[in-house]
What we know:
- This protein is an alpha/beta fold.
- The chain contains 14 helices and 23 strands.
- The chain is globular.
Amino acid sequence: MQLEETIEIKGRSIIGLKDGADSGQSVKALNPATGEEIEPPFVQATTEEVDQVAELAQSAFLEYSRLSGKERAKFINQIANQIEALGDTLTQRVMLETGLPEGRVKGETGRTTGQLRLFASLAEEGSWLNARIDTAIPDRQPLPKPDVRAMQRPLGPVVVFAASNFPLAFSTAGGDTASALAAGCSVIVKAHSSHPGTAELVGRAVQKAAEITGMPEGVFSLMFGGGRTVGSALVTHPDVKAVGFTGSTGGGTALMKLAAERPEPIPVYAEMGSVNPVFILPGALAERSEAIANGLHVSATMGVGQFCTNPGVVMLQSDDAGNSFKDAFSGLMESHADEVMLNRSIQKAYSDGVAARDGNSNVEVIVSGNPDTTSGPCHGATSVFEATAENFLEDESLSHEIFGPGTTLVRYSSQGDLLKIAENLEGQLTATIHGTDTDLEENKELIAILERKVGRIVFNGFPTGVEVCPSMVHGGPFPATSDGRSTSVGAFAIDRFTRLVAFQGCPQSLLPDELKDGNPLRIQRMVNGSYTKD
Ligand code: NAP
């Protein structure tokens, strides 16, 4: 298939300012709407190139990590400008490789550039550094107090695994890359094989931004190749100091294991699966059943259900009001047209998951999830299942994610059922509660349990559509993520790629500018226990 492009896609890895060599092995992207191959072929990186990229990233890190937040911000803002300059070439390529509609692709482009600019301003603003200064008291009795100053410092080269379901916002220049660059780390991206052309276009935008702003070569590289070959070699390379990942539980836990077994273990920030439970409480159902059914249908089918925040399990009371809700919601899901999923393996994983639930005697099939066979090779159809609270608690498989437009309704009879279900949950990215003020007042215990289980509790809303803002938490206890203390969206994401370093008795001339007397960068610091910019 020929695409009219003003910017050439070379099909080569980006190694600092150069292109990868021809290893003799290449793969092409597939158009999920038609099943056709898309030109050009993408050359798979070699192990020699992995070494080359990691060494380059390490030497770039030594220089880049010393730059001021202002200089890093210039680079990151320039990346956003260069992505915008790709214009329609980028939009068309993303649509071709992912089957996502134009509106979504344009929206995600805006989210990606907005995210980059958020991290650029954060890098410059500096309060995230947690700079603290405790000045010396030489004549303190019985012992003198030393001068101690501390701040967050970048970890080193970071490997980012691009996600299939967000080809821009969680991929080459997505949240992991933006937060690592803002922290002062160099970045090596392992492209996702589902959208390599998109990866290269964005990668070349980053490369150009690095050239324009005079960044050290190797501050950014992009590699094509398999996860188990190129990806694993990057994670185990001694120069690599952290990993960012969004994808399957199997992929994320494999990388956690590899990283933990290295002679020097390194952190892996993996965002994996979640069923994002929704609890519909009786008062809310009586007040606005139709509105909740409509909102849930939009949320469950958004992005063909291929969002990590997709509402996969919904707790619904087992009475007439619950039955009416079930009928309304199932009707909306049933009439929802089949849509193109991101790639064949995701489509297959979804249809396998639906088939397994179909054959499970603990659930009833309400909407089948079988796509019209004439639709296309990667189409997915909506599914709705129903289980009793008792069966849901007994059958662990019902709380596993089916990545796609499917939802399981769990029918509860009492508040006791809800508390048992909540207590039984694994770690989740989100939980949602629909309740009136009285409902919420009467369900404080449920909320308290959910706080232990999830990264974000949504009240009277829907979990999809994660706002990118300083207070956002897109994380949650294992297995939703590899580290429940972290988030992959929002300003707190920068903390993942840093560690604290204290300087005791350090001469002024050798201190980082952020910790020098007189606060030359005018950043927020804690000086002798009080926050100040003085
Ligand atoms: P994936 O299979 O986990 O792959 C993500 C990336 O990790 C790819 O670059 C892949 O390399 C690499 N990888 C996978 N397993 C690996 C291993 N054992 N060792 C080293 N690298 C490995 O995810 P996906 O392709 O995006 O989608 C597959 C399934 O993941 C979906 O059906 C869905 O269930 C889940 N998923 C979840 C989320 C979420 O946000 N929760 C998002 C996307 C996908 P290759 O290039 O070799 O594939």
